Amino acid sequence: MKEEKAVVVFSGGQDSTTCLFWALKEFKEVYTVTFDYGQRHAAEIECAKEIADELGVSFHVLDMTLINQLSANALTRDDIEVKDGEEGELPSTFVAGRNHLFLSFAAVYAREMGARHLITGVCETDFSGYPDCRDVFIKSLNVTLNLAMDEQFVIHTPLMWLNKEQTWELADELDALTFVREKTLTCYHGVRGDGCGECPSCILRKNGLDAYLSKKGEQA
C-alpha cells in the first residue's frame, strides 16, 4: 500500500482525523473528501479544511445537502433535540443512508483521482446503534461498489473493532494524540477540542480519553 493512493472520508472529527493520520502512514498519496449535508455547524467543514491544510493533504467538499431534504434528524435540524435512542430506537442524530451515500460518492471521487483505497472511521464497537457503521455493511458495500464501477476498491476501517479508549491509544501510537484532542470537532454543539462535555458524543469521547490516560499513567 505504500506506493498507492487513498481517499479518506473526512469530517474533522476525532475518528476521521485519526484515520487520516493512519492513512498518511500507510499510503504514498492521500486525499480527503468532506461532505456538506446541511449539518448544523459549518464549523465542522471549516475544521476539516484547517486540519487538511495543516497536514498538507488535498481537501475537497461535495454538496450533499439533499440529505437534509430526505432525513429529519438532530444533526441537520435545529428543532430536533440531540438525544440517545430509547427502548431500542436509533439516536436522534442518526442520518439515514449517510455512510452509504458518502462512501458511494467518495468512490466516484477516488476513481477520478486514480485511488482505489477508501478509508472511513466507522466503528461497530461504539457505533451508537447506527446500522451503516457495521462491518457487514462495509463489506457488502465494498462488493457493490466494485461491481457498480468495475473497479477493485478496498474500504479500510481502522477503527472498526476499537472502542474510544483504543482509538485514543491508536492516535497516540501515531504521535497524534495532542493534535486530535485539541484540533478536532466531535461535539454535536460545534465546540472544538474537548467539546461541550454534555452531548452524547462528548461524553463518549471524554470517557474514552480518561480511560486511556489513566491506563497510560499506570503503565508509566
TrEMBL record:
Protein name listed in UniProt: 7-cyano-7-deazaguanine synthase
Organism the protein comes from: Alkalicoccobacillus gibsonii
Keyword Signal: no
Domain of life, per lineage: Bacteria
Residues reported to bind Zn(2+): C187, C196, C199, C202
SUPFAM superfamilies: Adenine nucleotide alpha hydrolases-like
Assembly, per entry: Homodimer.
GO molecular function term, any single one: ligase activity
Top EC group: ligase
Cofactor dependence: Zn(2+)
Recorded family membership: Belongs to the QueC family.
Free-text function comment from the UniProt entry: Catalyzes the ATP-dependent conversion of 7-carboxy-7-deazaguanine (CDG) to 7-cyano-7-deazaguanine (preQ(0)).
Pathway connected to this protein: Purine metabolism; 7-cyano-7-deazaguanine biosynthesis
Lineage: Bacteria, Bacillati, Bacillota, Bacilli, Bacillales
InterPro entries xrefs: QueC, Rossmann-like_a/b/a_fold
